[in-house]
Amino acid sequence: MRLYSLSVLYKGDPKVHLLKAAYDVSTFNFFQRSSVQEFMTFTSQLIAERSALGSRASVKEQEYLCHVYVRSDGLAGVVIADNEYPQRVCFTLLDKVLDEFSRQVSKMDWPSGSPATISYSALDGYLSKYQVPTP
């Protein structure tokens, strides 16, 4: 069971853009890591873009399961995990991260934010903490 990516995005008009993300590509070959990370970023944006406000979904993409939660305020979270990782734990993690992110980062920064301008450092910690899910 593995988590590979945890992303916070903003579903604005007309496009979805990445606010902050954390990746664990340590299980991939060194030369594949950057392309795997790009794939995960692209897939996260695509899934958030295709999901309605206020919805949750799990989408299979290649050998991964992508779990998306788009809040009604446009803040979205995506977890990319392997097929064995429990879905319920992914949505619990997304709830927790999006609630905390919305408390720490001003809503005014969401439409124009980017990974370089948003200061929210908890994603890497959550990604490593949730590698081993507790039922």
UniProtKB/TrEMBL annotation:
Protein's UniProt keywords contain Membrane: yes
Topology in membrane: Lipid-anchor
Keywords from the UniProt entry: Lipoprotein, Membrane, Methylation, Palmitate, Prenylation, Protein transport, Transport
GO molecular function: SNAP receptor activity
InterPro entries, per database record: Longin-like_dom_sf, Longin_dom
Lineage top rank: taxon: Eukaryota
A GO CC annotation given for this chain: Golgi apparatus
GO annotation, biological process: endoplasmic reticulum to Golgi vesicle-mediated transport; protein transport
Keyword Protein transport tagged: yes
Domain Longin, chain residue ranges per copy: 8-127
Localization in the cell: Endomembrane system
Family as reported in the entry's similarity comment: Belongs to the synaptobrevin family.
This protein's name: YKT6B protein
Organism: Daphoenositta chrysoptera (varied sittella)
Gene coding for it: Ykt6b
